[in-house]
Amino acid sequence: MKPTGFYGQNARQYFDLEHEPLSLITRSLRNADIAVTEVRDDAPTRSLSGGMVLEDSYVVSLILSDYPDCEQRELGTPAVKNNIHAGATYLYDMKKNPRFVIDKPCHSLHFYLPRSALDGIAEQSGAPRVGELPSQLGAGHDDPVIRHIGGALLQALRQPAEINRLFIDYTMLAFTAHVAQTYGGLRTIRTLARGGLAPWQAKQACEKLDADLGGTLSLQQIAAEFGLSVSHFSRAFRASTGLPPHQWLLRQRVKAAQKLMTVPDLPLAEIAISAGFANQSHMTKVFSALVGVGPATWRREVLGVRDSVARPSG
Description:
The chain is α+β, with helices and mostly antiparallel strands. It contains eleven helices and ten strands. The protein folds into three domains: 8-182, Jelly Rolls (Sandwich); 199-242; 250-310, Homeodomain-like (Arc Repressor Mutant, subunit A), CATH 1.10.10.60. A hairpin with a 6-residue loop joins strand 5 and strand 6. The protein is globular.
């Protein structure tokens, strides 16, 4: 039986790519895979894209380069030609088996969104089931939110070692909620709690994250510890700490690195790994963004001040 899901080998076969494209995958509220895949082919051989297993899911595509005079078709409709524009978002219903002629260089991000993920968002919000999304061949949407999310995930796809699990979970949850609200007409019925976590919950959540600086735990695992949904936990954690979980974790990594850097002879490369960063370069990038100076400069300043205080004057 052919596996479902528009990512990995399925995406490679669909676009007739030489290698399997890069994908980031997370679990939806109902344990279905949600994925984002970068597809780029600068010298394609003219062909009709492969068919997909018909399933109740959508592909939301963010186009990264113009694709003029694109010939598209789907079940029960004649082929159409449209200019596909860079920066636009396009929705495809996989039940209609959308296909297109590949005959020009292409570059795009494709979000795979199963129906069960949309149903999970609606259930958590106490809202009716999301209806069919408005997919129409060649009809693009100007969606700055998808462009922002796509830009963040594109960087993650290219530097996966530097991205923690919490960031992917949080961003893909935001993507799913946005699509459900913007294109599916999701309207929250239940009054969502706006307060934060209980003090004991906030303390335990922070302790769990602090003990996992490498970021291996998923949002789902942490939220389940408190019997909360992922969206409720993420919102309440931010209300309690002022930051979403993945950003809070980055700050803890920086704090851990700062403590280790007070040891004069400990190499920065070792400090980076010990503090949960992928490597020294990753630590430098995050540290500089949050502290305002690079780790080497910060260390020299701190150790210089400490040494001057320790030495007696005169």
